[in-house]
Amino acid sequence: MRERAGLLAQELKKTVVLVGMMGAGKTAVGTAVARKLGVPFIDQDDEIQAAANSTISEIFQTYGEAFFREKETQVLARLLAGPPCILSTGGGAFMSERNRDLIAASGVSVWLNAELNLLWARVRYRDTRPLLRTENPYETLKTLFEARTPVYAKAAIHVSSFSNYSVDDMANAVIRALTEHPDILKVTNHACR
């Protein structure tokens, strides 16, 4: 990344854990942030599925949500113990106080805050969301949104999402927010020679 007379070097000091509702863009934005910072991107749901050799939907259907949440915490702890990365979590991961404590101890939580109507526009035609397999998925999403928003607000950093933002715009907004915290993302200016 160039800046007028010098080069900026960035060093990620802690794992950045993206939290928020389904459809907030955690995976897409996280992938873009990781690419821009030159660090690994890990999707927690992918890690859970690999460990269980099952899809999230299959885990929910076969073992139930409580089993899934326990596996989610185990995988989160393992990933936070690794080198700094950008980590996308499932929508319910941050609801657990245990998970919030793990994240605060070893990483930093970043809430991708999107309005309900934007989330609905993004998830309404997808059948990969087990929690939305109800008679009225919009009402289910609204109920989840209302219950989860106050908990997401406990995240260390908040980044608002807007319908006119591209994935790249959101990734840049996350990086800007991270640079305000040198203990998370250290940016140094190296003069060009």
Describe the protein's architecture and organization.
- This is Shikimate kinase.
- Its EC number is 2.7.1.71.
- It catalyses: shikimate + ATP = 3-phosphoshikimate + ADP + H(+).
- GO terms for molecular function: shikimate kinase activity.
- It is an enzyme of class 2 (transferase).
- There is one protein chain.
- The protein is an alpha/beta fold.
- It has a single domain, classed as P-loop containing nucleotide triphosphate hydrolases (Rossmann fold).
- Helices cover 48% and strands 20% of the residues.
- It has eight helices and eight strands, in the order βββαβαααβαβααβαβ.
- The strands form two sheets. It has a five-stranded parallel β-sheet with strand order 4-5-3-6-7, with helices on both faces. A three-stranded antiparallel β-sheet has the order 1-2-8, with helices on one face.
- A hairpin with a 2-residue loop joins β1 and β2.
- The longest helix is centred in the middle third of the chain and has 16 residues.
- The two termini are 16 Å apart.
Q: In percent, how much strand structure appears in the residues?
A: 15-25%
Helix content: 40-55%
CATH class: Alpha Beta
Q: What strand order characterises the main sheet?
A: 4-5-3-6-7
Please name the CATH topology: Rossmann fold
Q: Can you summarize the main beta sheet? A: 5 strands, parallel
Q: Domain count, please report it.
A: 1
Please, what is the CATH homologous superfamily?
A: P-loop containing nucleotide triphosphate hydrolases
Number of helices: 8
Shape type? globular
Distance between the termini: 16 Å
Task: Summarize the helix and strand pattern as letters.
Answer: EEEHEHHHEHEHHEHE
The gyration radius over C-alpha positions equals 17 Å
Q: Kindly report the average pLDDT value.
A: 88
Q: What CATH architecture do you see?
A: 3-Layer(aba) Sandwich
Q: Which class of secondary structure composition applies to the elements?
A: alpha/beta
Number of strands: 8
Return residue spans where pLDDT drops below 50 for at least 5 consecutive residues: 1-7
